[in-house]
Amino acid sequence: MKxxxxxxxxxxxxxxxxxxxxxxxxxxxxxxxxxxxxxxxxKESTQGYYxxxxxxxxxxATYKRLELKADIGLGGGKVAIKDLLLNYHFRNSVxxxxxxxxxxxxxxxxxxxxxxxxxxxxxxxxxxxxxxLGVTYHFYDKHWYLATGVYTHNDINKLGSGQRNxxxxxxxxVWRWQGADxxxxxxxGAFSFRTKEVNxxxxxxxxxxxxxxxxxxxxxxxxxxxxxxxxxxxGLVEALYMAPRFMLQAEYHFDRRNRVAGKRAYRPQGGYxxxxxxxxxxxxxxxxxxxxxxxxxxxxxxxxxxxxxxxxLNDGQAGIMGGEEKDLSLGVNFYLNPYIAVKLNGSYVWxxxxxxxxxxxxxxxxxxxxxxxx
Length: 374
Hints:
The chain is mainly β and 374 residues long. It has a single domain (2-9, 27-373), classed as Porin (Beta Barrel). The protein is 7% helix and 56% strand. It contains 3 helices and 20 strands. It has helices spanning 2-16, 106-109, 122-127; strands at 25-39, 47-63, 66-73, 80-89, 93-100, 132-140, 144-152, 167-178, 184-194, 206-210, 222-226, 229-242, 246-259, 269-280, 284-287, 292-296, 302-315, 320-335, 340-351, 363-373. The strands form 3 sheets. It has a 16-stranded antiparallel barrel. Strands 10-11 form a two-stranded antiparallel ribbon. The longest helix is centred in the first third of the chain and has 15 residues, at 2-16.
């Protein structure tokens, strides 16, 4: 791993044609997420799960207006490239090329260690994609964040094997007002278009799925197979409010997956609303460059959090039934210092029609996370 990071850094130096004595700043970083859960599901009357959810190392190197970010994931016995980005910074904008999330869904864009819960809401997991290889232009000023980009329908780890031959165009726009005492109002939306896949054996097919409130269970909670798939058009609306001790965040997603051979389009939908209240501490971080909220500003904060989510992957008119669920989650986050945090939460899930057969009836799940980042 050290050889890989050294090689990437050497390549950056070669591209820029600089000598060691010039102003090059390098910061190495790492994170780890250790999760445990307890539920009434499973073969035993009470079933427990635990695992190292995420472990990664990386670095950020800056030279004048250039910035290189690289994160390598080491979880699950596999080595995978996470973020690998070359950024060029203008006065009020950033041109970014590489492997990262497209500008779609602020909850998916939030760093894992800054999220209110262990993972994004079930609706976000269903409608937001994983990282993609492409180019993005970000513009930001006091009142606006605008971004647009073009991407392959793959991340860098899948190039050459398991590749989906399609292109994606995604744009996001946010208007915000920032006042005194860490107050902020943020309203926006995003839109994405994906072309029909080509060079496939037979008619293109696809799928949409969501793990629900936890990815520890052996099966996704909701999953829909989409035969004869054509183009896809999806969008969302988003809102964020921040005050010194309170924050509220919400998104609503709508998706239309067109189909070939005269088949009806598949139209799932869903959304969530979540909030945080600081028992100890004041203010929440906000990244104006990318339009996303962060963790509490106080190093030793204690935060109460709540979230309600509704996700519906059933579409009777299209004849595709992927499942429906509602969940309510409550939790408390302890930020022990800038590097270590403990997150405890519980979720009650109402299992709707056509969910995976593993999920029989409603259930409660408790989850605990110990995380570090530096």
